[in-house]
Every structure is written in C-alpha cells, then in structure tokens.
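ESCALATION

Customer reports they have been waiting on this structure for their group meeting. Please prioritize. Original submission:
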Amino acid sequence: MMKTDFSNNGAAPVEVRERHGTAVTQDYKRTAPARFNRASDSSKKEKKQSLLRRPGVIVAAAALAIVGIGYGAFAMFHSFTHESTDDAFIDVHFVSVAPKIAGHVAAVHVDDNQLVKKGDVLLEIDPSDFQVALAQARANLAKDKATLIQASANEERAQDLFTRKVISTQERDTNVATSESSKASVEADQAAVEQAQLNLGYAKIKAPIDGYVTKKAVTTGDYVQVGQALMSLVPPRVWVIANFKETQLRSMRPGQPATVSIDAYEELKLHGHVDSIQAGSGAAFSLLPPENATGNYVKVVQRVPVKIVLDDQQNLQRVIGPGMSVVPTVYVSGEVGAAWKVATGAIILAAGVILGAALWIGRVRREQG
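Update from on-call: job pushed to the front of the queue and completed.
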C-alpha cells in the first residue's frame, strides 16, 4: 500500500512538476547553441567542398594560374634579353654664343627658347666705331699706295742713274729701301682694312648652328666684352647618356637597338641604338677620382656611360633638352639560351596546370555521377 502525503492543500506535486520543467528548459538552452554551431560548420564545409567541385571555378583557377605563369615567364625572359637603367639623361653639345668685339648692344633679335636657323642674326652691336676704323684704314691704305708709287719711280730713276755712274751706290740703295718700305706699309694697310671689315662684320652676331636659344643673358643697351657668354644654342638633335652598371655590359655592343622612355612624356617611346661605350667608368674621370690603394677598400659596382643615339627625332613635337631624365632599355640578346629554358619551363608548368584541372574535373564528375 503506497502512502502519499499531501500538505498545503495538495500544492506539493505542482511545485515538483514546475521544477522538473525548468530543468528541462535550461538543458535545452545549453544544448541548442552547440547543435546550431555544428550545423553551421557543416554547412560551411559543404559550401567549400561544393565550390571546389564546380567545373567553372576549377577552369577559372587554372586560367588565373596560367596567366600568372605567363607573366612571370615574360618578365624573366625580358630580364635575360634586355638591360635597363634609370640613371640616364638627355645630353647634347650646346654652343655658347659670345662676341668677338666689344661694344654696346644696338638690337637683340631673338628671345628665350626660340628656334633659330644657322646664319640668322641674333643681335647687333653698335657699328659706328668700326665703320670709322674701316674708313681710317682705307685712308691709310690710299696714302701709302701713293707713297709707294712715288718710291717706285724714285727707285727706277736711281737704278738708271747708277747705271750711268751718276749717283753712288749708297743713294741707289736708299731709294731701293724706301720703295720696299712703302710696299710693306701698303701690305700692312691692306691687312688693317681687312681686319676693320671683319670687325664691322662681327657687329652682327649670327647663329653658328640650328638650335634653341637658352640662357639668354643680354638685352639692348648692354656693353659686352670679347668672349662674354651672351646665350647658348641647343641643337634639336640630342642623344642619351645612360650610366649602366659594369655588370650590365657583358652582352652590350654598339649597334644594338634600344627603346627610350622620357619621364616628362610617359606616352612617348623613342627608338635608337647603342652608339658607343665609354672606355672607362665615370668615377675615373671625376674631379676627385677614387684612391683605392689607400685606406680600407670597399668594392663598389662602377657605372660606365653608354651613348645611345635616337633614330626618330624629326617630328617629335616635344621639347627635349639636356638634363632631362629618361629610362633606356637595350635589347642585348645575350642570354637567349637561358630565356628559352625559362619559356620551356613555363610551358611545362602551364601544361601541368591544364592536365591537373582536367583530372580534377573528371574526378568531380565521376563522384557526382
């Protein structure tokens, strides 16, 4: 016989049921998140697995791998067959314009950065003094020519009188010497006239070459001295001096083609060729060459200037002058064998990627079938 105690009017069994329900609820709350996390992890894993089993994704991944292999192979091939440096500049032999005579500047016919042709008048020096000097030289020449005529006549008479024993040898010699002196004076006057004509011509300073006017340092009214630098002319035809490392010269030879890009005009690509390689490093011809026999020696890779002549610079429609930065690339073709090895390796890798992708796609299809 089972005995059940009731107290508080039968409320005890209800309280027991409430405690049991609360415990079950708390147990469910603890286990529900864990089950949800396991479910989400499994769903992510399924998504990842399904992504790698899609043929389109596999083909895209293989294509990206092939593109990467091709780019890497091209970069290595280019590095084996080309040499480049950013230590390069435009160079040119510009002409400094200076007067041969001193005087006041009467007129200046050019301005900064103006293109002039050979023979164009750049400026004029006041010619008044030189015109006077030319006139004076011509007058002296005329005077000495008259004196020469008289001296020549006296010489002829003296020779005739000496033949007839009328005058002495001394008198004849005196007339001969006077005639010779007059001839020398005429020659000197002729030279003076020529020099005066040259000085008058020097009053007009003309362009010795075709080029652009730069560093103009003269204006109307200035007094200029002989040899004073008035302006410089930069010829349109320029070239590149590229300071390559000595280790880059192993396969470089004159005549090899080159491509030159100018920092100022990134879209402009010029073509040229290697003209010559300097016989010595740049440091050897510097103001203070290195003294490697003194102190502690530290080996430094030297740079050697290489002259690159531009082939197409007739219709550039750009201003290119000395000192502008450029980046030349010379096709040396010295490591063609190594380059072909790189290309062969790239082809093998690409074939391996394609074969692997095909095998993986076949495996996925078999599993799905």
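Sent to customer with the following note: The first strand starts at residue 82 and ends at 84.
Escalation resolved.
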